[in-house]
Amino acid sequence: ILHTCELSRLWSRTFANGPRQKNDSDSTDSTDSKTSQLNDASVKNNLPQKSIWSEPIPEYLRGDHLPDPVRNTEREYFEAVSNPDKKAYLDTLLYSRERGISRTVSTWLQWNLNINDDQEIAAIIEKNEFMQHKKDQRYLEEREKALGPELAAAHFILARGGAVRFVGRDQWHSKDAKLSYSIPRIKVPNLFVEAVDASGMKLTYVGFDIIGKLSQLKFLKFNNCPYFNDWCLSRLQRVSQTLECLEISNCPGVTDNGLATLHCLQKLKVLRLSQLSNVKHLGLLALLLEEHIPELAVLGVTEEELEPVSCQHRGERRLVRALLGCLDDADDLVDQKMHEFNKMTPDDYKRFARPID
Q1: pLDDT digits over 71-95, tens only?
Q2: How far apart are the first and last CA of the chain?
């Protein structure tokens, strides 16, 4: 109905308060003359004449309940006029005209973040990357139904840069130069994964929900895995009935507590440990693991690491034995006697010394 923006403003002033009266002012006469001139011009040019709305404008078209259209785009404004119940363009989870900013945005605004600190920003980026890897490595029931647990785990390892070997085969499967690999993509009976090389993978503890379903896994290797930590070691209990060889190297997330959980791998025969920067008592843990697991041989431990400081030997040994569950009453009695002996003074030594004949 509106012909031009100028006519729309004139009509809104003329018809906002009701139909036109006889005692209108000179301004209404001027508007009538302008509209008549426009109609005459349209007749001369053989154009259809525009009908004039002679009734009051409805309230929902007047826009009294709407904000100033200067703050909005024209399209958004007229859409709001035609449909007042429709949400505006900015009414999202982050912002609403009625409620303002959401709680999430308010939390972000109050976040104490120093954008000039490179270490803090790097830590935030690393945390977000870790969360993304956790989400990507979740267990998918649909994948296991389509491929079976063995092939599902094999595809999971290969797609993320690892390597696998199947039972009865000497060939290792991994990605080629074109980042593709060739293993069956349908369920194959009697096909089992025997060895997994996860070197360089950004494997988190979430991925062990898939690796833990391998029924004949005997070999595992973790080298240069940034997210491999104590939580991952604790989840190796799921393959404790078959695992025979385990290699862990250059994994900064592994500590003494994580290595102490390996006592549950009773069928483990070879354990290779190297370049574990956060393990303080590697030699002591190696000795106690060999004592607790009958056929185990720990490799990669130097002679210096096998000789802890004498003043800390008893306490560290007792701590590690407690973690492994090897303490008994005899150990408690020996520790008590050693503690009493260390408290003795020179006078006490004289009382226990024998006289010389």
Answers
A1: 445 555 556 556 655 555 555 556 6
A2: 132
Neighbouring C-beta atoms of residue 307, cutoff 10 Å:
11
Cα 3 to Cα 10, 44, 59, 178, 248, distances in angstroms: 11, 18, 21, 63, 79
- Going by C-alpha positions, the residue among 320, 328, 248, 249 that lies closest to residue 284 is 320
Contact between residue 56 and residue 17 where contact means Cβ atoms under 8 Å apart:
yes
The burial of 188, by beta-carbon neighbours within 10 Å (0-12 exposed, 13-18 middle, 19 or more buried), is given as middle
Segments making up each domain of the chain, as ranges: 5-82, 142-308
Buried b (16+ CB within 10 A) or exposed e, 32-69: eeebeebeeeeeeeeeeeeeeeeeebeeeeebeeeeee
Q: Taking the CB of residue 118, how many other CB atoms lie within 10 A of it?
A: 9
Residues facing residue 253 across a β-bridge = 229
pTM comes to 0.58
Provide DSSP, 165-198.
EETT--PPB---TTS-----SS--TT--EEEEE-
pLDDT in tens, 189-236: 889 999 999 999 999 999 999 999 999 999 999 999 999 999 999 999
Instruction: Note the CATH number of domain 142-308.
Output: 3.80.10.10
The phi, psi pair for 53, rounded to 5°, reads -80, 115
Q: Which two tokens stand for residue 143?
A: 């994948």
Q: Residue 136, SS3?
A: helix
Contacts of 136 (CB under 8 A, 6+ apart): none
Report which DSSP code applies to 4: S
